[in-house]
Write a structure and sequence with these properties.
Elements: E1 3-7, E2 10-12, E3 18-25, H1 28-31, E4 33-39, E5 46-51, E6 57-59, E7 67-72, E8 77-82, E9 91-98, E10 113-117
Parallel strand pairs: 2-10
Antiparallel strand pairs: 1-3, 3-8, 4-5, 4-9, 5-6, 7-8, 9-10
Length: 119
């Protein structure tokens, strides 16, 4: 079972940048893709970025060109670099392991990290 801890969220002005980090435990991290998700109150959790174990990436249309996902397989870390942030990016962000875009999350959900985009 993958244990996950997200960090790096905060308050940022529109147009600003943040980089989120995800620390994962368990060997399953290296063997699977990683995804970053976000959730706002009353809405389902949304997958916004995905990276395979080999480094191939995919993004939701809403963040394409602004967010970049990466991973460090030697340290079991995943990252989400967010630029040109918009108020609609405000959400709690989570990471998890998964096998395919839109597939089931493999680990227990962490606490997430709050991102608030506001002037």
């Amino acid at each position: 079972q993958v244990q996950l801890v997200e960090s790096g969220g905060g308050l940022v002005q529109p147009g600003g940048s943040l980089t989120l980090s995800c620390a994962a435990s368990g060997s399953i991290f290296r063997a699977n893709a990683m995804g970053w998700y976000r959730q706002t109150p009353g809405k389902p959790r949304e997958l916004v970025a995905f990276i395979t174990s080999g480094g191939n990436t995919n993004y939701a249309d809403s963040v394409k060109g602004r967010f970049t996902i990466s991973r460090d397989n030697t340290k079991n870390l995943a990252f989400l670099q967010m630029k040109s942030l918009k108020p609609e990016d405000t959400a709690v962000y989570y990471c998890n392991a998964l096998r395919t875009w839109g597939g089931l999350a493999l680990g227990s959900w962490g606490q997430g990290t709050q991102v608030t985009v506001s002037s």
